[in-house]
Design brief:
Radius of gyration: 30 Å
Helix content: 10-25%
Bound molecules: adenosine monophosphate, magnesium ion
Strand content: 25-35%
Shape: elongated
Number of helices: 8
CATH superfamily of the largest domain: MoaB/Mog-like domain
Oligomer: single chain
Length: 440
């Protein structure tokens, strides 16, 4: 078995004190990241036009093939001259104007001491010129540019060749999640397309006899599926291709079909529901029969039960496996476990070297009590008071109350070993949305 396909059995066999019924959040994340560590090596790469590159992950280190800018040029509209033309401080200088040069033009005349050239921003500096005086400081009389020497220092308003990117120097590193600025940099090198990791194929489905899709009739005792929609929204921010496999009934034969079908089509499957100890929770037994999957009780709230592992791809070699996350069913638990475990795993699987969630610290507005021995993720909001930012924890923390997730703008992390927090204590916070596309 290659490194890429390290199994969860192999990873846990190397751990001392492994207890699936009492996993800490950090212990669970460590195992997950170990399981996905080498995955991106098998993902392969493709070239995409720069316009499609933001949000993708760079496959190779990028070295500059040019100096940017390619030549010294003017940073302001003004007059370019050799600083040596000035003799003393606070003198009135008069320089003979030899001509004009705009951006895109080149002045090839040799400029000598006592002369200058009217220059526009971005134009190449004429020979011998090293300084630009902005036009606001200059008056013109009889073909001469007149100004006071105090208004300018040597080298002012001159952009140096290669000051942005230097030929042969590193520009971006492999594993960087490409931003708007990154594709701008690549474009400034004149490169129209870039090699990125291929997209990861991710499939998901919900489980449960009571789950109906929006648009269907809701019979008594049933509920509408929200998990597939939160999941798809969270996945769509990542460099992945997504397949929605729908809703599987709590029936071992149907569940097996769902898993086999999904495993044949995707690299990662995320399910919700059916991983606790309920009588209709067949997801566990089916997952177990198809590969090597562990069932954890994680010391966290919300989101205690979770399944993690790999299942075999049907009709392929044993080493070809699909990663699976069996998330709990409760809508808030799904979002929280996705955020805490699935998101860093996916970032790692797509080659992003900054895969950990970015945590920020803010003081609490009120005191909080929690149970020692588990990590609690409370929904919270950031509030501004007298110019400082505080975090407020929402009242209703029930794991079925999806509304509180919609009203929140962050998760507040209450640490495993803590019991009480006083108002003003700083807590770690995971901010939702824009800030979370790239991790630490
Ligand atoms: P389970 O883990 O399957 O027992 O589900 C736990 C709770 O989450 C139950 O109340 C389910 O009805 C609910 N639930 C499970 N899946 C979904 C879903 N896709 N959308 C909304 N609620 C769900
Ligand atoms: Mg269920």
């Amino acid at each position: 078995m290659t490194e890429v396909n390290k199994s969860i059995d192999h990873i846990i066999s190397c751990l001392s004190g492994y207890d699936p019924d009492s996993m800490s959040v950090s212990g669970a994340l460590d195992i997950i990241l170990e399981l996905t560590r080498e995955y991106c090596k098998s993902l392969g790469s493709e070239f995409v036009p720069l316009t499609d590159a933001p949000g993708r992950v760079l496959f190779n280190d990028l070295i500059s093939t040019l100096d940017v800018p390619a030549q010294d040029n003017a940073a302001m509209d003004g007059y370019a001259f050799a600083y040596k033309s000035l003799r003393q401080e606070n003198e009135t200088v008069k320089l003979k104007i030899r001509g004009n040069v705009s951006a895109g033009e080149v002045m090839s005349d040799e400029i000598i001491l006592g002369e200058c050239v009217k220059i526009m921003t971005g134009a190449k500096m004429p020979n011998m010129c090293d300084t630009v005086i902005p036009q606001e400081f200059v008056s013109i009389s009889n073909g001469m540019a007149c100004f006071t020497s105090n208004f300018v220092k040597e080298g002012d308003n001159r952009r140096m060749k290669g000051e942005d990117l230097k030929f042969g120097n590193p520009v971006l590193q492999r594993g960087k999640l490409l931003s708007a600025a990154d594709v701008g940099l690549v474009a400034s090198l004149g490169v129209p397309e870039i090699e990125v990791y291929k997209k990861l194929r991710v499939g998901f489905f919900s489980t449960g006899n009571e789950i109906r899709s929006p648009g269907q009739e809701l019979e008594e005792g049933c509920i509408y599926d929200s998990n597939r929609y939160t999941m798809s929204a969270m996945l769509n921010r990542l460099p992945v291709d997504v397949i929605d496999f729908g809703v599987a009934a709590d029936n071992p034969r149907i569940l097996e079909e769902f898993f086999q079908n999904a495993a044949s089509k995707v690299d990662l499957i995320v399910t919700s529901g059916g991983v606790s100890v309920g009588e209709s929770d067949f997801t566990k037994q089916v997952m177990k029969s198809l590969g090597s999957v562990e069932f954890w009780k994680i010391a966290m709230r919300p989101g205690r039960p979770m399944a993690v592992g790999k299942i075999k791809k049907p009709n392929e070699a044993d080493s070809m496996q699909t990663m699976v996350f069996g998330l709990p069913g409760n809508p808030v638990a799904v979002m929280v476990t996705f955020f805490i475990f699935v998101l860093p795993a996916i970032r790692q699987m797509v080659g992003n070297t900054r895969y950990l969630n970015k945590k920020l610290k803010f003081p609490l507005i009120t005191s909080i009590k929690k149970k020692k021995g588990r990590t609690e993720f409370r929904r919270g909001s950031l509030v501004s008071m007298n110019g400082d930012i505080f975090v407020k924890v929402q009242e209703n923390q029930g794991s079925g109350i999806l509304r509180s997730m919609s009203e929140a703008d962050c998760l507040v992390i209450l640490e495993h070993d803590e019991q009480t927090y006083e108002a003003g204590d700083k807590v770690s916070v995971l901010i939702f949305d824009g800030l979370q596309e790239s991790g630490e």
